Amino acid sequence: MQRPSPLNVHAIQSYLGTRSLGRRIELHERLDSTNREAVALAQAGVEHGTIVLADAQTSGRGRMARTWFSPPGVNLYGSVVIRTPIKAPLLAAWLSWLPLMAALGVAEAIDIVSGLPTAVKWPNDLLINERKVGGILCESAASVGTGPFQIIGIGVNVNGVPEDFPDDLRHIATTIRHETGGFIDRNRLTAQLLIELESCLEEFLSRGSESIALAYRRRCTTIGKTVRAVLADGKEYIGVADAIEQDGSLTVVQPSLGTSPPTVRQLRAADIMHLR
Ligand code: BTN
Fold first, then answer.
1. d(C-alpha 26, C-alpha 28), whole Å
2. What's the rounded Cα separation, in Å, for the pair 230 and 213?
3. What is the 3-state secondary structure (H, E, C) of 126-159?
4. For 200-251, how does the pLDDT look when each residue is reduced to its tens digit (9 = 90+)?
5. Which of 81, 148, 173, 248 has its CA 20 to 30 A from that of 46?
């Protein structure tokens, strides 16, 4: 592709082959945050699968209360409303796996559209050549009358150049264009990630977490690495990432000190840095 194409609802629909995700598309030139808008729409009763897209965000939200760099015209910023009736015994597993399934689906979509192998850093950072090309921010809420819902917020750095990143991101982030040397059609990428995401969610709902967990482990390059894990309360652990458990948590083993045995930490949420 010679030049980046503008986001366009009809173009996205022309690539879509989903049952419910993306059947309704709300496209905005600019929003403060697509996640905030998707929560508001979900509270007002919007249907399952609706995606809110923006060409730019003025207050894009990242994990761990960070902001998400969201310049106009080059990237993908989207939030999908998930309103699936889940039976009580499955609910905890669904909520734990949703952010990981989102990362898996988006990684598959980037692979397909760009031709580049896209890895996942636990829990849901998307990496190409060990640099961050995208991230996921899931939120859960409920409202009187419309019941519980989840929002999957997806940010992918698509057609920008690394020189445009702020200083603190320039050496840790990348864009698909930088990695492939060519522009990517954001409409096709949006449709593809909805297709891949829907297929992950359907697999989980019909057969449980087993094959999702296998596919996720294959994509996740955190396993076997020495990592620094920073928890929401500021606690820090350094150790070897040993396994992704069947509930989606990460096991980190801290080496023994002197005669004491190694400490095994089971992490449900953390910011992970791959050290080596
Ligand atoms: C992360 O910190 O890695 C998660 C970033 C998620 C960013 C996306 S962009 C679209 C959606 N709207 C937001 O405000 N955040 C998410």
1. 7
2. 23
3. EEECCEEEEEEEEEEEEECCCEEEEEEEEEECCC
4. 999 999 999 999 999 999 999 999 999 999 998 999 999 999 999 989 999 9
5. 248
Ligand 1 pocket mutation pick from 32, 124, 154 by most atoms within 8 angstroms of CB? 154
What's the CA gap between 156 and 131, in Å, rounded?
A: 12
Please provide the distance, in angstroms rounded to a whole number, between the alpha carbons at the two ends of the chain.
Answer: 36
Query: Where do we find the tokens 């989606």?
Result: 248
pLDDT of residue 27: 98
Quote the ligand 1 centre to 17 CA distance (angstroms).
25
User: What H or E segment, with its residue span, contains residue 27?
Assistant: strand 25-28
Q: Tell me how far apart the alpha carbons of residues 102 and 243 are, in angstroms, rounded to a whole number.
A: 19
Paired residues of 253 in beta bridges: 240, 264
In whole angstroms, what is the distance from residue 213 CA to residue 216 CA? 5
Looking up tokens 């309103």 gives: 83
Q: Are 162 and 80 in contact (CB under 8 A)?
A: no
Please give the torsion angle defined by the CA atoms of residues 193, 198, 200 and 202, in that order, rounded to the nearest 10 degrees: -170
The closest alpha carbon to 251, from 237, 240, 262, 259, belongs to: 240
Select from 137, 152, 172 the residue to mutate for testing ligand 1; criterion: most ligand atoms less than 8 Å from CB: 137
Closest among 170, 106, 164, 178 to 135, alpha carbons compared? 106
